[in-house]
Amino acid sequence: MSVSFEDIRASTVYKLAKASWLLENNGPNGELGHESAQKFSTKIVSNIYRKLESDEDHEINLESLKYLKCLECYLWPNLSEESTDDHIVSIAILSTQNEEAWSKLTEPNRLDYKN
């Protein structure tokens, strides 16, 4: 199954991203901006984890989370010693599904997480 941009924009993951870490960019091509739209929330992380573990729309959820840069823009920057199991497992799932993101995250000085 191929996931289209329309599938991603119609997904519940897109709605979650837009409320959490995704801001619409007013760029010339209508590209999406990835910035923190609101403070980090463990409830949002739990929702992300449920989407990753769900059998319903699994491929759309996974591809949406990858495309919307959930790992790079929301999960990884908010990793701390107090992170929940849902947070850590979500990072593990997304990093094994996205080699490009993982290589960027493991660049020197990127592994120093903030408390």
List keywords for this structure.
115 residues, mainly alpha, 55% helix, globular
Please, could you describe this protein's structure?
The chain has a two-stranded antiparallel sheet. The protein starts with a helix and ends in a 10-residue tail after the last helix. The protein has one domain. About 4% of the residues have low confidence. Helix 3 crosses helix 4 and helix 3 crosses helix 6. A hairpin with a 7-residue loop joins strand 1 and strand 2. With 115 residues, it is mainly α.
In short:
This protein has 115 residues and is mainly α. The chain has one domain. The chain has seven helices and two strands.
Backbone CA Rg: 14 Å
Biggest β-sheet strands, sense, barrel? 2 strands, antiparallel
What spatial order of strands do you see in the largest sheet? 1-2
Could you give the order of the helices and strands?
A: HHEEHHHHH
Count of spatially separate domains = 1
How many strands in all? 2
Tell me the span between the first and last alpha carbons.
39 Å
- SS-based class: mainly alpha
Pfam families: Aquarius_N_1st
Domain RNA helicase aquarius N-terminal: 15-97
Protein name: RNA helicase aquarius N-terminal domain-containing protein
InterPro entries: Aquarius_N
